[in-house]
């Protein structure tokens, strides 16, 4: 889930959002109070310039960004499976970040950091060009009604921004269970000059990507999940 900053009106054609509320559970609130000072930062409060991820993680390692981590079901498992990666998740839903911190606590994760706020602002102002080893966008809000398609995250300007932050050879991995959105993703990413599809069209579903309850529900409702994996070309 993503948020559009009021400070970035020029990018409103790139990404829209719905600000979903909801109180945190007692456990999520405890996790927030206990772990946020170490694991999390507010995008709106970041100092000017790129984040020093090596300093934040206490080591130099490839940085992988997940945009829209939701309740962290997939994020925590993927971070646990890739201890050699500095895994960063950006999300606007506070309860989701609280739940992700609970999962991180249970798995004793040391390679996960969280950002609360707008991914567009983060990428534009706080991620250096050609610095990310990968970006993952799994099951973003599909905005299924035709009149709302313009609110979808995956649009040309946004994908160009993402591609510019990938290091040469870095991967952009997307997944959705909505057929029309999958087609849009394929068209948009195929049209970005900085990227090339690693497959003729859809990527085989990676065995390492966990099946979330939402994807399982989609399967039960007859919607097929599609993966796309694009690679950043040399400048």
UniProtKB/TrEMBL annotation:
Keyword annotations from UniProtKB, A to Z: Methyltransferase, S-adenosyl-L-methionine, Transferase, tRNA processing
Record's keyword annotation contains Transcription regulation: no
Domain of life: Bacteria
Pfam families: Methyltransf_4
Positions of S-adenosyl-L-methionine binding: 66, 91, 118, 141
GO cellular component: tRNA methyltransferase complex
Catalytic activity, EC: 2.1.1.33
Pathway(s) it belongs to: tRNA modification; N(7)-methylguanine-tRNA biosynthesis
Enzyme class: transferase
InterPro entries (UniProt xref): SAM-dependent_MTases_sf, tRNA_(Gua-N-7)_MeTrfase_Trmb, tRNA_methyltr_TrmB_bact
Chemical reaction(s) catalysed: guanosine(46) in tRNA + S-adenosyl-L-methionine = N(7)-methylguanosine(46) in tRNA + S-adenosyl-L-homocysteine
Positions bound to substrate: 145, 177, 212-215
GO molecular function: tRNA (guanine(46)-N7)-methyltransferase activity
Family recorded in the similarity comment: Belongs to the class I-like SAM-binding methyltransferase superfamily. TrmB family.
Role, per record: Catalyzes the formation of N(7)-methylguanine at position 46 (m7G46) in tRNA.
The name this protein goes by in its record: tRNA (guanine-N(7)-)-methyltransferase
Taxonomic source organism: Amycolatopsis bartoniae
Chain's gene name: trmB
């Amino acid at each position: 889930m993503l948020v559009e900053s009021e400070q970035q009106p020029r990018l409103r054609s790139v990404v829209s959002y719905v600000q979903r509320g909801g109180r945190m559970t007692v456990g999520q609130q405890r996790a927030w109070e206990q772990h946020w000072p170490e694991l999390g930062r507010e995008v709106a409060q970041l100092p000017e310039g790129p984040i020093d991820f090596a300093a934040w993680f206490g080591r130099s390692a490839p940085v992988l960004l997940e945009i829209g981590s939701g309740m962290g079901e997939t994020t925590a498992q993927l971070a646990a499976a890739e201890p050699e990666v500095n895994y960063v998740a950006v999300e606007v839903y506070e309860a989701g970040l609280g739940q992700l911190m609970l999962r991180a606590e249970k798995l004793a994760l040391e390679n996960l950091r969280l950002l609360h706020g707008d991914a567009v602002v983060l990428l534009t102002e706080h991620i250096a060009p050609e610095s990310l080893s990968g970006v993952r966008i799994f099951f973003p809000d599909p905005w299924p009604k035709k009149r709302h398609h313009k609110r979808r995250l995956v649009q040309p300007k946004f994908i160009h921004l993402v591609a510019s932050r990938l290091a040469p050879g870095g991967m952009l991995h997307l997944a959705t269970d909505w057929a029309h959105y999958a087609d849009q993703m394929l068209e948009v990413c195929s049209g970005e000059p900085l990227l090339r599809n690693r497959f003729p069209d859809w990527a085989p579903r990676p065995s390492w990507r966990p099946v979330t309850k939402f994807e399982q529900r989609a399967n039960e409702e007859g919607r097929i999940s599609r993966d796309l994996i694009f690679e950043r070309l040399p400048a």
